[in-house]
Please model this.
Amino acid sequence: MSQAGETLEKVFREEYGRIIATLIRISGSFDLAEEALQEAFISAATKWELEGTPNNPGAWLTKVAHRRLLDAFRRDKTHTDKQSEIAFEATRLLRHAEPELLEDAVEYPDDRLRLIFTCCHPSLTRDAQVALTLRTLGGLSTTEIAHAFLLPESTLAQRLVRAKQKIRLARIPYEIPSVDRIAERLSAVQAVIYLIFNEGYAASAGQSLIRNDLCAEAIRLGRVLCKLLPDEPENIGLLALMLLQDSRRDARVNDGEMVTLEEQERSRWDAREIDEGVNLVQHALRMRRVGSYQLQAAIAAVHAEAQTAAETDWRQIVALYEELLRLTTSPIVALNYAAAVAMSEGFERGLGLIEAANENGALQNYYLFHASRADLLRRLHRHDEAAAAYETALSLTTNHVEQDYIRGRLRSISASI
Amino acid sequence: MKYMLLIYHDEQSWSAITEAERQQIYGDFRKLREELLARGQFVTGSQLQPISTATSVRVRDGKELVTDGPFAETHEQLGGYFLIEAENLDEATSIAARIPSAKTGTIEVRPLVETAAPASA
Model:
């Protein structure tokens, strides 16, 4: 690839979200902004090849796309039969079309925060929030998103069309929410980013390359969020959590087989991600507004800092889970807490807590409940019960990697009976 | 931009409350309406008679079919509406949240289709 081509691709990845955010503010329309930016990238492909890459490629593209928007608007003005909604967008465009905006020295403000909040607006479904965030802020194509979520492309395209239509017709505001709303809205943004990460992180067979891209994209979005709202410790906690989980990515699968945290080869953990993650957790906790992402990240940090599985500071992990349980009533957190207690205070006590976590049957269909229970029964040498629990777990997961892992456990149990 | 706020509530629990409670809620409705009026955001609105008074009309194959009852039997019934003027969806949902019935029922927020500019030539 030529140097200009490489720069273009890099700019596309890194600047797409920021440029599109500005263009949406200017035009008031996701579709007009996308078209204009598409055209700007096309003209960059020929121009940069001939004239060399400009000093500030992002600004160059924004300016060219901005001009396209103005041209489109002028063309449109000559049409008298236009729809009112285009008229609405055109009026907004006109209002923002001050000539000085097109001067070379212009600094476009960063509008990504508006874009994030609009994409994650509660009046959109979670699926739509995720798709729209990846499409606009991440600059992923419809095809890429569809592949990553194992969905037909038409389903995803339809989802995006509907979301953009709702934004336009119901007039979902393109702005940072008011003070009384921001906490709730921000947690929706964090949830969307973490969901993207988890979608990529889930140990699934095949498609692993695309799925790793989702993790990278979620981490990138997490960084953007920290940069835009640096005083929110939960933003930092979320980024730290993703980095610390991601640091174990290569170690947790070996030849397509799942490897538990305890059995992972720790030299394969990514030391750079661990360093950054641990520093971020400490930084966030010093802000003294603890939240669930920070606590989860702190737990991951304790694991990351243990040189061997045996050196894990389970007492501290138990204490962190106790904090976490104060913030959430999630039975899954209760389950993880029980597993930590098992390692710190004995398998018998852990098993009791695991069963208590499922007292109301909330975890009955959750494969990890049965797998964790089976694991403790195995450690307690109650092989028959362990095997039965593994069988239940096996029936509850459709993921091949997880199924293989459980089958492996079942084989080693029957060998030891 | 105009938004229709459709007020859904459980008619049975509405008729089960005391007169004093009802008057209190009507008072809250009045207060909200007056505030919106003063800000030029209240277009119109009304309480509806209960669904026992509803009649549904359909025309099929040119034939008029008139039946007793609402369009659909649901757990919550349409009990009234506000037509308001709001800058965007966030403003509309903030107003919807202040409708007294939001505490027990559901307010559906629907943007109105804006009338297209008259076509010339």
The longest strand of chain B covers residues 77-85. Chain B has a mean pLDDT of 92. The interface with chain A takes residues 1, 87-91, 93, 109, 111, 114-117, 119-121 of chain B (CB under 8 Å).
